[in-house]
What does this fold into?
Amino acid sequence: MIAQAGAGRATAGGWAHAFGKVILLGEHAVVYGVPAIAVGISRGAMARVTPSKEGPSVLRLEGLPIDLRADDDERDLARSFRAVLEASSVRAPCLVEARADLPPGGGLGCSAALGVAIARALDPKADAQLVAERAMGWERVFHGNPSGIDTAVSAQGGCLFFERGRGFERVLLPAIGPAVGAEGSGAASAGKLLLCVGHTGTVSSTKSMVEGLARLRERRGPIVEKSFDAIRALVRNARLAIEAGDVKALGQLMDLNQMLLSGLFLSTQEIERLCGRAREVGALGAKLTGAGGGGCVVALVEDENVAERVLRSWKDDGFDGFLAETPGQPATRDETLARASARESTEPSELERSP
Ligand code: PMV
It folds into this structure.
């Protein structure tokens, strides 16, 4: 499990952190300019940089048997790595170590989180927006046509209302459920959503799912556009529901989004099974999250008892799941100070950057 940096920036020891993400509503349609809402989760990626005496720069990714050289043209990962180095204007050779605590191909933004963690480790002084932009080159190698929502949420954390080409607006999460350690007290814990994430056990390629929908859109343009219009309305209403703290309405909107995603052939039997089980045991809503075609589902629940029931029902059916933590709300003064001291501990002063 990855150590969690409160502000999603950097941890002691020079490791930079990036959030994973859960898309609450609007995946796929967001590629075509429809807004989407996503939340950063604590599970994410980490990276750290050590200057090397000689080049080329090397990426050491946990779980990979070999180190990747930035001048290797044969491998996607190496080309992605080079794209972040170039975007960050890093000329001096370095070793970048990176690891992720997210299932690859699971719809939780694993590749974006790695790109963001690496971009942040290369330049800890860069702000979240710049880090997200620099990580886009990495994403393009894998995804072809990424909307940018993954890198934005991974770099920023919190809940974002995102529109391609227009950036994002923060959405304040509601205060819901009993406070941690205060069961039965009725006290509310501020600013979070209780989200159970369940894994279908199969992976999917975001690139091929996005390309599949693009082909469907070519063949069945008007029908797909109608779905996108409906998703746009759901996303706008979901934003209002979150801001009003109406988690029941949010759950219903997520269910409707799932129906539309199924109609676009993005769901699978396992996804439907996980969503169905979650609803049966009391989830307010459930849907696929990310690219679909496998990967993960997200179920919104009202309290931790229901969360436990959802996770147990998935486990009984042989599916893994976890309760996501959703930190990274807008910075408080304390958080800003924590970030400043974390940055000091990670600054790669020896790395040479182009002017
Ligand atoms: O599956 P993920 O975590 O890569 O999320 C993909 C989200 C999409 O909307 C399907 C694609 C995109 O670029 O926004």
